[in-house]
Amino acid sequence: LNYVVQKRGLKNVEIINGRVENIDKNTVFKDVDVITARAVAQLDVLCSYAKHIGNANTKLLLLKGQKWAEEDTLAQNHWQYDLTIYPNKYCLDGVVMELLNLRKKR
To answer: Smallest Cα–Cα separation from 36: which of 97, 91, 95?
Structure first.
């Protein structure tokens, strides 16, 4: 990600490289545009993490493996989101999940 920021000459970008589960629950984030994750947790758990860090406009780009559809089904028991699926060029049985408008089900 740092390479992309540098090559694109992007400004106003902060990359936090670390484990999301280690982020202090009292930390307040503002203006988080994108959250990415690879091999972190099941989708339902990722949604919980993202809800704490992101806001209503935050986009999630998640690399998921061959069980992505099962994870999606389980997550939809607790979460609502707009989902777009993209092929993953590097993992033929995986996908990139783009989630928008993440909200907890009532």
So the answer is: 97
CA 55 → CA 43, 60, 77, 86, distances in Å? Answer: 17, 11, 20, 23
Residues 46, 97: Cα–Cα separation, whole Å: 12
pTM for the predicted model, two decimal places: 0.84
Contact 49, 21 (CB under 8 A): yes
> CA-CA distance, 25 to 91, in Å (whole number)?
33
pLDDT tens digit string along 59-105? 999 999 999 999 999 999 999 999 999 999 888 889 999 999 999 99
Place of tokens 């949604």: 47
d(CA 57, CA 89): 27
